[in-house]
DNA sequence: TTTTGTTGATTGATCCGTCAATAAAAAATA
DNA sequence: TATTTTTTATTGACGGATCAATCAACAAAA
């Protein structure tokens, strides 16, 4: 019984279903039928709206990225000092919305898939660059440029590393501990400089 | 034309072929025929020696892990002080043998697969624990126990994070830079404590 | 003649993507 | 207003491709 204006609702439902399916299976090896089933529609409809599976996956990654970007913008707006900006960027990556098992699993899976898909790789590179420049925007106010660059690189690596370890359910158990770890690193790096 | 004693040679060749195939494709989505072809045999032979595909993949991960463990032992043997032991553990992870594109891709792919395969997950957890205790064996000589634990956790996260970023071919470009980044972190962490 | 090495051919399952068909809403036309 | 037509929503069924795993068969060494 077709009601008009279904398209945006179905697209959203299918993308949500994709994330939860990936999260449960822990990889992109989910079938279109599985995803469609979770969204309460047939696989034919998923193809109708997204064309190929690749595009559904791409749209899903775009959605995750867009949410992260929005959260990041919000967090940066409410940070007044350079130091606060750095902490805000870190905190967003471990917020309740971002640091969920499904989202983490999706990130990891997409990282792997990016090695095959050029489109996905481009998306992830854009995110990486944005993360770096966001971190830098805070750090350059405190450290000399080339050292700020290093610290930004290390912080980004720490974030990714803590995501991976969380996916393995080994090592750092929760977001608070993860944040504390990175903040500890930043504190030693920044307080040291400011003390000299 | 069968010659005796082929089994160990074929096993080795198949495992090597698996690593190079995974490295090239960037994921575990490689067919048995592809792997067998690279090893110069038929896919039927691969099944003959390894049974199922899962077991070939598992054997491959075991092989990578065994090599890393051997390298680690060697490096630790030639380190005399606690501080040197820490650096040795870090260095091994970025040695020419370990920090190759194929090996990195394989690691990443296996991390993802571990979410599906319990056997693989067990393997990776063993590795994670060993890495942690190796780092700790050096750090406990310098830092109080609970802080040593934290630093070990952060170092492990940095290693994983730098692997991921290398896989994306973005960020840190080479092993030397990666090592410098981690050593810089360790130096600030350790020199600070020893100065107090 | 038994063991070891090896493969081509085949089977069975999975899964993506397409298509024809159906149904209801909306728009156009009479 | 009544009708036809078009657009939007939706699915079951199916074709075709891929691939893991098996098996029968063959060859050479022991």
From TrEMBL, chains A, B:
Alphabetically ordered keywords of this record: DNA-binding, Repressor, Transcription, Transcription regulation
InterPro entries: BetI_C, DNA-bd_HTH_TetR-type_CS, Homeodomain-like_sf, HTH-type_TetR-like_transc_reg, HTH_TetR, Tet_transcr_reg_TetR-rel_C_sf, Tscrpt_rep_BetI
DNA-binding positions: 31-50
Ranges for domain HTH tetR-type: 8-68
GO biological process: glycine betaine biosynthetic process from choline; negative regulation of DNA-templated transcription
Pathway noted in the entry: Amine and polyamine biosynthesis; betaine biosynthesis via choline pathway [regulation]
Pfam families, per the entry: TetR_C_6, TetR_N
Keyword Transcription regulation: yes
GO molecular-function term, one example from the UniProt record: DNA-binding transcription factor activity
Record flagged with keyword Transferase: no
Gene3D superfamilies hit by this protein: Tetracycline Repressor, domain 2 (1.10.357.10)
Role: Repressor involved in choline regulation of the bet genes. Repressor involved in the biosynthesis of the osmoprotectant glycine betaine. It represses transcription of the choline transporter BetT and the genes of BetAB involved in the synthesis of glycine betaine.
Name of the protein: HTH-type transcriptional regulator BetI
Organism of derivation: Mesorhizobium wenxiniae
């Amino acid at each position: 019984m077709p009601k008009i204006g279904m398209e945006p609702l179905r697209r959203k439902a299918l993308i949500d279903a994709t994330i939860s399916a990936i999260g449960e299976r822990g990889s992109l090896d989910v079938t279109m039928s599985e995803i469609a089933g979770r969204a309460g529609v047939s696989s034919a409809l998923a193809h109708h709206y997204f064309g190929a599976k690749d595009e559904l996956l791409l749209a899903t990654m775009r959605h995750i990225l867009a949410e992260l970007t929005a959260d990041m913008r919000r967090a940066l707006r409410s940070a007044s000092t350079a130091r606060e900006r750095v902490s805000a960027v870190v905190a967003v990556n471990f917020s309740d919305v971002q640091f969920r098992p499904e989202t983490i699993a999706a990130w990891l899976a997409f990282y792997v898939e990016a090695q095959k898909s050029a489109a996905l790789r481009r998306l992830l590179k854009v995110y990486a660059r944005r993360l770096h420049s966001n971190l830098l925007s805070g750090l350059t106010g405190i450290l000399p440029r080339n050292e700020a660059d290093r610290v930004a690189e290390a912080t980004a690596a720490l974030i990714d590393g803590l995501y991976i370890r969380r996916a393995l359910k080994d090592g750092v158990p929760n977001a608070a501990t993860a944040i504390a770890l990175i903040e500890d690193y930043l504190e030693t790096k920044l307080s040291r400089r400011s003390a000299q």
